[in-house]
């Protein structure tokens, strides 16, 4: 697999990481607040492809029958995509309002915190989290919990928004470059309401370096680290301190449980 130093064989998913895909995904961000079904629908399809590719690389099999736990699964936009691939999809979400925001019903959905997952050790084949780590106060505690519930040999895939990247402030950006609290106050003055992603409460400054450091010390085999929304030829950015904080808008860490 492709490691953070650029060595190892190219993962199957790399062939999907084209410039066209990057432009499509990045263009969908403007709909995150106004048309979440459109935005999250595209992210869901891409996430399912990512998981399926790495799972096949790891096991030689497709996702049929695999238990996929989605930490921070929200209202369930990902459920249909994983069901279409034959997986048993289980979302866990701490906020009941978020769980029902889209009016979707996902069998087996669980209310619980990613920092204390209500599952036994080695319970699932794949544990994923997409764009959630920046919304919890202790993201690396969550990462350890994700590893705990993953079966030996199973996959743990963590993808999160980097604070100093262009989307780090979510709807308050790009003013987050002047500070998260300033960006939140400006958003409130401009719109008359609090941002959904409130700095210090539901949005936190997580760096690319934090994820790379966790990968180095994790009790797991790191299969790949790469910028999620970049074409394959730009994946080298994760290896450059400083530059990756600004240009790696979303970091993916793919790990195999020992």
UniProtKB/TrEMBL annotation:
Gene3D superfamilies found in the cross-reference section: Vaccinia Virus protein VP39 (3.40.50.150)
InterPro entries: Methyltransf_11, SAM-dependent_MTases_sf
GO biological process terms, semicolon-separated: methylation
Methyltransferase type domain segment(s): 69-158
Listed GO MF terms: S-adenosylmethionine-dependent methyltransferase activity
Domain of life: Bacteria
Keyword annotations from UniProtKB, A to Z: Methyltransferase, Transferase
CDD domains: AdoMet_MTases (cd02440)
One Pfam family cited in the UniProt record for this chain: Methyltransf_11
The name this protein goes by in its record: SAM-dependent methyltransferase
Originating organism: Nocardia terpenica
Organism taxonomic ancestry: Bacteria, Bacillati, Actinomycetota, Actinomycetes, Mycobacteriales
């Amino acid at each position: 697999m492709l490691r953070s130093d650029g060595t190892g064989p190219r993962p199957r998913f790399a062939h999907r990481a084209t410039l066209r895909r990057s432009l499509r995904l990045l263009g969908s961000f403007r709909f995150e607040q106004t048309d979440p079904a459109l935005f999250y629908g595209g992210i869901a399809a891409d996430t399912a492809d990512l998981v399926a590719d790495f799972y096949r690389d790891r096991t030689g099999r497709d996702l049929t029958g695999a238990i996929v736990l989605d930490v921070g699964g929200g209202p369930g936009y990902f459920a249909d995509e994983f069901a279409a691939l034959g997986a048993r999809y289980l979302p866990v979400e701490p906020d009941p309002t978020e769980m029902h925001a889209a009016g979707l019903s996902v069998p087996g959905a669980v209310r619980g915190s990613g920092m204390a997952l209500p599952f036994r050790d080695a319970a699932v084949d794949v544990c994923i989290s997409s764009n959630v780590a920046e919304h919890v106060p202790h993201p690396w505690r969550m990462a350890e919990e994700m590893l705990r519930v993953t079966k030996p040999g199973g996959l743990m895939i963590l993808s999160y928004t980097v604070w100093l990247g262009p989307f780090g402030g979510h709807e308050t950006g790009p003013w987050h470059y002047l500070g998260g609290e300033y960006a939140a106050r400006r958003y409130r003055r401009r719109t008359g309401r609090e941002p959904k992603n409130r700095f210090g409460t539901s949005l936190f400054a997580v760096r690319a370096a934090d994820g790379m450091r966790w990968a180095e010390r994790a009790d797991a085999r790191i299969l790949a680290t790469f910028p999620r929304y970049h074409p394959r030829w730009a994946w080298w950015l994760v290896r450059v301190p400083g530059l990756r904080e600004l240009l790696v808008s979303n970091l993916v860490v793919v790990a195999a449980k020992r």
